[in-house]
Amino acid sequence: MLIPKSILYAMSIATCKATKLYVSSYDGNITTMHVTEHKAVGIYNQSQIELKPIAINNGCAPSPSWLQLHSNTLFCADEGNTTPNKSLLVSFKTGPNGTLLPLSKLTTLNGNVNSAIYGNGSTMALAEYSGSAITTVNLKNTSALTILQSLNFIFDFDTTRPGPKPQQSVPRPHQILFDPTEMFMLCPDLGADIIRVFHAHPANKILTEQKPIKVSPGSGPRHATFYTSEECGAKKTYLYLVTEISNSLLGYEVFYKNMTLSFNKIHESSTFGSHFIPVDSAASEILVTPNNKHLIISSRNDTYFLNSTNPDPANKTSIVSDTLLTYSINPCNGSIALTQKYPAGGSFPRSMSLNRKGDLLAVALQQSSRVVMFRRNATSGNITEIAGSVAVNGELTDVVWDEPTDDGVYARALGVISFPRDSPVREGAIAIHTDILNR
């Protein structure tokens, strides 16, 4: 018997898969939402993604800024915008219904804006933008977080000095990321126009600072990502950096020798490639896609698209939108090329996060107070359409997937590189560089 297409479509609505997102906002809340994709059976790839808020938690108030998921624990870094002398790191146990159960609350220095977990999940490092510091935290007992080490930075006018811009009056650590071996930690410092480099002791997790990467004065380094390649007969690692003030995109080949890292610059352009940089734009996030083929960069306040599709399906009025930029990566030499500029769905795409397949990109729009889900062609790298969106109160600061892997570890669990912890790309990268260090 033939079933009419209309009935097939109705049947397909009940056949769906669901996962979750966690979204933080400067209004003090973390919102949990279901991400449910309804796929149509027998019809030309029709699908719809529903983003439905299911729980709200204010346990990371006043200023949740950065979220990190590790197994069934969600860590929230509070920036402390209304508490100038302190910030918070809060751990929550995640529940299947989206609820967050507070486990521990730790007071740290001011300005927590980013974190990464290392040491097989035992330790976290926090970038403290307003406190000019990096703090490491013992995570062995997520119900009793404790500080391990605090590194406070000042300008010594020998190796570091302030940049020429007003926001560069003090050191401004803005991100924590680890190389594929987990033996080296990097921290872009927006105030000092350097990327700080540290060796992370494998036993006690103590950080020892090494020679930094210097960038042009007034650049304002913000976020970076590692990329590894084993193609073309070579085993190589690259680092890509975006700067917030100058809107530069920099690429470096990374070399390992005698327990140190060195960097050779291979690329320098604006974040918009050979195109003009829109006035007042400010680069934000940079990710490597899970298939290890592309970079995605978010640009805030550029208003590049003046007549963009409104992500709210109930509103057909076109909007002004900032930009998402996609670059292809040459695995043989690390060179990159701009392949797409796409409207971000609104204003200030502060944070973005890819699902494991790389075919869905969630973007937190700070000024538009909206999460927008984009569909991607993972092979070409191009964003193809808005797949769904939802309004969320306040200025949005971060968005992360709750999408379990086979071993229960999550995509931003480690903070080393952008692809998931158990991906063959990441495992190959660790094997490559562990071998190099052991030679």
From TrEMBL:
Gene3D superfamilies to which the protein is assigned, alphabetical: YVTN repeat-like/Quinoprotein amine dehydrogenase
Leader sequence segment: none
Coiled coil: none
An MF annotation (GO) of this entry: 6-phosphogluconolactonase activity
Cross-referenced Pfam families: Lactonase (PF10282)
PANTHER family linked: 6-PHOSPHOGLUCONOLACTONASE (PTHR30344:SF1), 6-PHOSPHOGLUCONOLACTONASE-RELATED (PTHR30344)
Protein family (similarity comment): Belongs to the cycloisomerase 2 family.
Name of the protein in its database record: Putative 6-phosphogluconolactonase
